[in-house]
Amino acid sequence: MWFDVFAVRMIVELLLFGALLVGVYFLLHMTVLKLPRCTAATKLHGKTVIVTGANTGIGKTTAIDLARRGARVILACRDKGRGEAAVQEIIQETGNKQVIFMQLDLASLKSVRSFVDNFLKSEPRLDILINNAGQVWQTVEKHEDGFGMMFGVNHLGHFLLTVLLLDQLKESGPSRVVTVASKAHEMGKVDFNCLMTHRDLVPGNSDYEIFQGYCHSKLCNVLFTYELAKRLEGTEVTCYSLHPGFIKTELGRHATSWWNVLLNTVSLFSVDAESGAQTTLHCALEQGIEHLSGHYFTCCAPVLKINPKARDDAVAKKLWELSESFCGLS
């Protein structure tokens, strides 16, 4: 008899403890983990936007919001099937039929050039370029031009894409370039010796080196934006980089071993794609932030006290010049 009472008591205590954990979890999501929302009322009728990696995650959510505002939205994605499916979903959800798929594989400089050629032949203007696509993990696939995948996709592909579209952006001004980086850039560095010898940001493929490579590539995003802003001074094109928050998306779908377990555990404290897209939308749409071109944003606000390595003029300039060389632009 005493055992039954003890068992019931234990079950009740476990249920209460579980309810408490669930309550704390939801409280965190409603307070600490709740991200600010983009409040811009900007309409985009007659405007053209490119969003890379727009078939899933915050890229797709961003594209949906822009389509609702009346923009002509180009989904620049590698996978044709998933890209075309996303087009139909966005058209159905927003009623905007000006949503188009154009194939872009950021792991191929040839594909980037082909995308730009096709875009310039079919589209007379470009008002917003959102460099959203990214990898947080290496895959078995190789970069077509021999670069490390995360360096090639997260930085180099977007670098070439942006540079080749700059004339169109200038002609359509005022226009913007928004690059999705990450707070992980704070743990990154740019090792030019490694880039020259390995054509990558890290020399190996251990789990730790892969994580380092992601951090390094996100620092490249921030430095690229910083240098781009200086080169765009005197034009009507402005640019911004950002941390979207820790988002539960498919970005880490190729992770392996215990890193996958870690990502899944930490994802309990992540936010959804809609919340994660808000700072991207803020940088793309908010009026009056033009004087903040080159800045890094988070939670829909500029970070005014940023790590000095993210504002290193010499490193930013050298990275730009090396990227030009890698892309055959100089």
TrEMBL record:
UniProt KW Transcription keyword: no
Matching Pfam families: adh_short
Domain of life: Eukaryota
Keyword annotations from UniProtKB, A to Z: Membrane, Oxidoreductase, Transmembrane, Transmembrane helix
Annotated TM spans: 6-28
Family annotation (InterPro entries): NAD(P)-bd_dom_sf, SDR_fam
GO MF annotations, alphabetized: oxidoreductase activity
Keyword Iron among record annotations: no
Family: Belongs to the short-chain dehydrogenases/reductases (SDR) family.
Name of protein: Dehydrogenase/reductase (SDR family) member 13a, tandem duplicate 1
Native source organism of the sequence: Lates calcarifer
Species lineage: Eukaryota, Metazoa, Chordata, Craniata, Vertebrata
